[in-house]
């Protein structure tokens, strides 16, 4: 039940693209297509942004996209906007009905 | 509109107990698995426990096994977390979270606002 590995911080200027990685193992990220990404603004509850690696829930802008290669999943935010500044967390199913989260990445819009 | 409203948090001494509750509305409660996810102050998210639609499966993170018990009452559309033998490291904001499937689903699609548990002497 080890946490997934995310970079602690990422940044980009308005209009640019930024990619956040989430590295696990073959027992979680690499073994299932059940990777999700959540956005959390300060003092707020997390919001689902991406599920099943690359699917967007209704209402999430198409500037947000997800992908996976081997044991590493990625979240890309294109056309950065000021409101995208937040903490981002990945999660994955890890088998045996267990779920794991990444440590979180603070995205700063410069 | 899906709503998840947690209650029951508070200040408790190490070794003490608390029971968290979550009142759900806006969806057919017994069609979905439910979870508790916690966030220590200034830290990241940690999955704590889940329970499937008919309470047939209820896994836990290793750090709470034998101390916490998750349960649900489908007639009341409510989720619970009984926390015993609390430790200072259990201090966190506890979120009630909906899965997107009858067993577990594939993600956590709706989150409550959380209830704060503080374990301190």
What does this 3D model show about the protein?
The complex is a heterodimer of chains A (110) and B (121). Chain A is an all-beta fold and 110 residues long. Helix content of chain A is 0%, strand content 44%. Chain A has no helices and 9 strands. In chain A, strands 1, 3, 4, 7, 8 and 9 form a 6-stranded mixed β-sheet that branches. A 3-stranded antiparallel β-sheet of chain A has the order 2-6-5, with no helix packed on it. In chain A, a hairpin with a 5-residue loop joins strand 7 (86-93) and strand 8. Chain A is globular, with a radius of gyration of 13 Å. Chain B has 121 residues and is mainly beta. In chain B, the strands form 2 sheets. In chain B, strands 2, 4, 5, 8, 9 and 10 form a 6-stranded mixed β-sheet that branches. A 4-stranded antiparallel β-sheet of chain B has the order 1-3-7-6, with no helix packed on it. The N and C termini of chain B lie far apart (40 Å). The model of chain B has no long low-confidence stretch (mean pLDDT 96). Classes of the chains: A mainly beta (110), B mainly beta (121). The interface between A and B is medium-sized, with 24 and 23 residues.
What are the main properties of this structure?
heterodimer, A: 110 residues, mainly beta, 9 strands, 0% helix, B: 121 residues, 48% strand
